[in-house]
Design brief:
The structure holds two protein chains of two kinds. Chain A is an alpha/beta fold. Chain A has 16 helices and 14 strands. The chains are: A alpha/beta, B alpha+beta.
Amino acid sequence: MRMIVLAHGHPELGAGGAERAAYSLFQRMKQDPAIEQVVFVARAEHSAIGHSAYFGSFRGRRDEILISPPPVDGFTFQSLSYDVLKQLVTELIDTIKPDVVHIHHFVFWGIEIFELFRKAGVRVVFTFHEYAAICTNFGQMIKVDGRLCYAASPAECGLCFPTVSAGKFFVRNTILKSFLDNVDRFVSPSEFLKRRYVEWGIPGERIDVIENLLDEQVMRRGHDRMASVSQGLLDDIDDSEKTLVFGYFGQINPFKGIDILLQAASMLPEELLSRIEIRIHGENKHFTETEFGKRVDELLVEMKGVVRQMGSYRNEDVSDLMSACDWIVVPSIWWENSPVVIQEARMAGRPLICSNIGGMAEKIDKEVDLLFPARSPGALAELIRKLVSRSIRPAQSRLDALALARAKADEEHFSHHRTIYEDRSHKM
Amino acid sequence: MIARVDGIFEFCAVLVALIRVEQQRNTPLPERIDISQDGLLFSMPSADWMEVVATPAPAPAKGAKTAGKKQATKLRARDVESPQKTLRTYLAVFANSPATAQLSRKQPLQVLLQGRGDAAFQGTLPLTQIDLPQLAASNVAGLISAACRKAGREELATLLGASIQVKPASAFGPFYLDRTVMSGSAVVLEGWIANLSERAIHLVSGDLRSCVFRSSIAIKPRRDVHEHLRKADALTAASNEHGFFAVAPVADEESAREIYFLEISGNGATATFYGPVQTNFERNETEALNMVRNNAGDIQALPKEDIDRFYRPVLSVPKAAAQARKFHFGPALPSDGRRLASIIIPFYGDAFFLNCVHHLQRVLDDSFELVIVVDDPRIWPEIYTGLTSRSTSITIPTTLLQNVENYGYGRANNLGFMAASGDVLFLMNSDIMVMDAAPLKRAAETIRERASNGEPEVVVGFSLLYEDDTIQHMGMSFPKSSLVGNLHLADHPMKGLPFSLYDGDLVRQVPAVTAALLGISSPLFGKLGGFDTVYERGDFEDADLCLRAAAMGADIELHVSAGLYHLERQSIPNMGSQDLRGMVTYMNCVEFNERWANRLAETAGSGRQRRVHRIVPAQQKARRGAALGSKVKAKG
């Protein structure tokens, strides 16, 4: 079998969960002897290609191709230069001769790629990573005034974007759905995301729920850590007087809820503050000039006694960095899909505190993890207060068992993908 | 016999051709003259021509400045060349053809003198401006005057019957133009002229193509002017009515630049043109409408003739000849004689709905062609690049027309019709989304069956839905409404109600259907002359088209099926202010009501709509089942 894994970016050129998930799958496919060839094709800014061609290779790797397709209409995701896109996709197909293309995103590419592959006789698998087709507000299903959005309809979407008529949203939906009709099988990393797409109009029987694979380096370091645990190299001293470390991992943007965590901390009484530490792993690069950025900066100043800014981190280190925390906090204010942080925390054997919505609520383990009402700093503060004052700690044995299970799970996830790649049943 | 046409000119919406014939004794004149431009035809048999009798014209000194400008037509009477051959001059005067105003001076006229058998003369000539001093010096004015009198244009006849003089504006006496604003196809003027109440003054556009007669000029008191004139000792009238307001229809900006004041002497013997006077107009639709409203009153308070006089020129897009450039995309038209249905889609204001055209490319088969008419220079680049950049996705023969200017909905469709090659037409708004082409194919079949069976023609409308699956259109009715002064509106019954609640027939006869999506045979559309462009900017012309078709014996049918969406009126808000929109609608409504008064009284009955249900024949019942099937599918 010959394959293309197609993503909207290369994880080494810009970290995002979906790009990483696509790349992890690509890494795993390369280990599979039944896959004759697999090529990772990522969209990149033209400057990243380094010469005048539309295509280039990433760091000279023969199976990692960068491509700079023409710009895309931000509303309907149609290519602004269809003829050029068609030529590029045709060249890819003629060169790689794939049996299957696994597409991880159409943004930056153009929604027409589904049809182009399909018409060339290539089977098309598509993984949803967020709500881009449903919601024009960055695919987040958050209303422009910040409220959570439960369902899209042309008239309601028109309320978020008053200059765009309901009719235009209808046109958008029709275009996207008609192109998505070219997909043979859909993959959704969470049940929650699948439900949203089913409500939007994709038939449920065409969507398989499969968790994203983790990066091979993360897996290796995770395995190493578990090996040390079983050899008793890591002492897990139960010290109830010890400072509790709450770790935040990920991008610092308004959707990920770092401000909720900092506000919660600011509400805690002095005597509790002395017993906690908040570690922020990630950098605030893009939002410094926004209101959100300013709010975060003010909170960081206010909480400087409690918060340690750890800076950005290499992906392969995530397991070790997480192990050093007592709790991993995922305070996102949007639904999420299946946050990779949750999978990484599982692998690192750490318990989670998550917002109680969407993909986060679905992915936690009820025995060890905790939920708090999304977007409520007060509720999160109360939860932290209880954890500290009562010294609540989940059973490490359960966490280790979960870590072991997670380590094995990727094989199942991959084999599930394999059955989809080989399935020829879907006919248009 | 040698015959030729020496010149064609226009004066205050009178078209005049100057014909010279070298005649031998008793040889008959050519049969008729035909003058045409872009589908407009003016034809007159020689029996109606008028001979210019010998009144030797004084030849103007070479290089003498004339008010009539460069392309003046030389008017000469009879030249006697030999006793056997006489050179005679005739005039063909079209004194009562409102279409004259639509002729363009930028394009040549096609002229034909039809001889007894073959053409005696054939060629192209420019539409020129009359030379005022020469008009004054021949009996031509008298002839045109007679023709005008015969055509019932009394005011113009009187004017041309007088002895004509041209004087500079400085000889006119004190006057001032306070405001001159151009909008639509009019220039709106406000100002004052000393002692106006006692003078017979008309306004004539600088190119002499249009004239606002005294009877159409609103005269207003101006105390300030009265005082000023009194102090300057320039008062000859007791009344303080020196102010005036007028709406002068003009062909284009060029004709709006200058005006003449035309004053008729007390005894009617002399007509003096004073000018030309620079108007220095500005373009401003809102300002023009404010001036009209302040001077003439609200549109809803006016009788139709005042609406036509004051509001129509301001609200109308200029009606000069329409021109479009043509581009082709996708496969060539079939050469195997296969019949096509042509879908005509005008674009105005918003190029977004080109997305619906892209979608059409995916749902139509090879029995269709598309004719896209871009009636808005602002969005042309977006539409053009939108098509060129995805040329390889265009699978239906597609003609793209670039209108040179904005011509309005009706004329854009009429242009599209000229470029269409199908025997069946679908008129389609750009914001129609076709999810399923089957209803269009069925309608084309119905239209063709009627023709091949020799049955009456049929105009087919469709059930159209909003994006939330509620009804946008289910046929029109014409109830009276207090919203428009108790006139009949073109109403859409059931609008906004869920489509699933409709349980009527799937094919039924209705009084009229919307042209947002309308099927009609090409011959019928041609016979009807397309949309009547008296309706401005996309209102009422579809209802009017249906009523005219019905008057010719056609049936008006509504076909009901799921899968056709009208994302309505997204293209309207850009057309101008809400206020303007309302005025245009009202003006169209008044026109429609007047034209169809009897028919509307009939359909409206006792105030309740009469719904005509037709018994569905077996064949259609089968189709009805099919349509229901697709409805269920679309819902599921």
